[in-house]
Specification:
GO terms for molecular function: FAD binding; methylenetetrahydrofolate reductase (NADH) activity. InterPro entries: FAD-linked_oxidoreductase-like (IPR029041), Mehydrof_redctse-like (IPR003171), MTHF_reductase_bac (IPR004620). It holds the Pfam family MTHFR. Its EC number is 1.5.1.54. Pathway: Amino-acid biosynthesis; L-methionine biosynthesis via de novo pathway; One-carbon metabolism; tetrahydrofolate interconversion. There is one protein chain. By secondary structure, this protein is α/β, with parallel strands linked by helices. It has a single domain, classed as TIM Barrel (Alpha-Beta Barrel). Helix content is 41%, strand content 18%. The protein contains 11 helices and 10 strands. Strands 1-2-5-6-7-8-9-10 form an 8-stranded parallel barrel, surrounded by 6 helices. Strands 3-4 form a two-stranded antiparallel ribbon. Helix 5 packs parallel to helix 6. The longest helix has 22 residues. It is globular and about 65 Å long. The protein binds flavin-adenine dinucleotide (FAD). The site of flavin-adenine dinucleotide (FAD) has 22 residues, from strand 5, helix 5, helix 6 and strand 8.
């Protein structure tokens, strides 16, 4: 079922959903099933599975020479989505990225997803490869989420890349895109970034999932700005509990967000990791209560494949 239909059917009740990472290459799918087993009690209407482009690794030879090799550390997104749908009868939402795909490879991936009965995709540009200073598009691929979005929209209207093929099958993907309450880090200012978000919705994106944030006021301001500017699709807040002191440095560095002073001071004052987890839990529970009151359609948790802290929070809200 489409995400927008899950939201409509909930009649204003806030739903819970989760994002999972494919296991690192060499690890089995059991970790996904273990995570799913822990989260199923919250009846998630859908589960997102991230997509990871290849990264550069450096292999040292005996001579001391370093060889640069590129490989994908976390393959398996499409298969994990199929396995989740088959085993748990829950909708799975694969993330679809520009990086690492030619347009034809994207088309073939969309055909696979359609044949597997996957109804939703989250369309993204994707992160830059580790070692690249900026995002580098794959030759023959897309440079922005808007371009990838256009390809999915084209397939939804039966338009494939090769015009000479006989096309009788239209796909019917419900398409989500990313939104940034604290602005995308590459954008010169908030309004420029917002203009591209608006463009994605005008093109046909049907829901927005936000980057994580720790200050619920940022989400509220973002939603208000969207509504004031004619963006009326569901805006799903992305959430993550803080679990370690190191995240005070890492989360702003990786996700380009602000951690409220009250939270950072409380975490700094903790003497043990258990204390940090408790502070992180209390903070997010309060944020979630505010989001529910505000009418957030879904609370979407970035589990980072560690469901424990998320589970504790959702147990207190469900
Ligand atoms: P875009 O919408 O293409 O925007 C990128 C930048 O370009 C922005 O600054 C924007 O303002 C600007 N821009 C947008 N369109 C245009 C245009 N047409 N012309 C000029 N400028 C433009 N990364 C992964 O690799 N895998 C994942 O699974 C993944 N999942 C994510 C899930 C969520 C909910 C979020 C919020 C992010 C996720 N990311 C993932 C990270 C994401 O790929 C990065 O944040 C990336 O840098 C931007 O992606 P985007 O889709 O927002 O890009």
């Amino acid at each position: 079922m489409k995400i927008i239909d899950h939201i409509k059917n909930a009649n204003g009740k806030t739903l819970f959903s989760f994002e999972l990472l494919p296991p690192a290459k060499g690890q089995g799918i059991q970790s996904i099933f273990k995570t799913m087993d822990e989260l199923m009690e919250f009846k998630p209407p859908f589960i997102d599975v991230t997509y990871h482009r290849e990264d550069y690794m450096y292999k040292q030879h005996e001579s001391g020479l370093l060889e640069r090799v590129a490989y994908r550390k976390r393959p398996g997104t499409v298969a994990i989505c199929a396995a989740i749908m088959n085993k748990y009868k829950v909708d799975a939402v694969p993330h679809l990225i520009c990086g690492g795909f030619t347009k034809e490879e994207t088309e073939n991936a969309l055909i696979d997803l359609n044949f597997l009965g996957i109804d939703n995709v989250l369309v993204l540009r994707g992160d830059a490869r580790k070692g690249d200073p900026d995002f580098v598009p794959t030759p023959g691929g897309h440079g922005y989420a808007t371009e990838l979005l256009q390809q999915v929209i084209d397939m939804n209207s039966g338009k494939y890349l090769h015009e000479d093929i006989e096309s009788t099958a239209k796909t019917d993907f419900c398409i989500g895109v990313a939104g940034y309450p604290e602005k995308h880090f590459e954008s010169p200012n908030f309004n420029t970034d917002f203009k591209w978000l608006k463009k994605k919705v005008e093109m046909g994106a049907e829901f927005i999932v936000t980057q994580m944030f720790f200050n619920v006021e940022k989400y509220k301001e973002f939603v208000t700005k969207c509504r004031d500017n004619g963006i009326h699709v569901p805006i799903i807040p992305g959430l993550k509990p803080m679990t370690t002191k190191r995240q005070l440095i890492m989360l702003p560095k990786i996700f380009h967000l602000d951690i409220p002073e009250e939270l950072s001071e409380a975490v700094e004052a903790c003497k043990t990791n258990a204390e940090v987890r408790q502070v992180g839990e209390e903070w997010l529970v309060e944020q979630c209560k505010e989001l529910i009151k505000f009418g957030a359609p879904v609370l979407h948790f970035y589990t980072m494949s560690n469901p424990g802290p998320t589970k504790k929070i959702v147990e207190r809200l469900a």
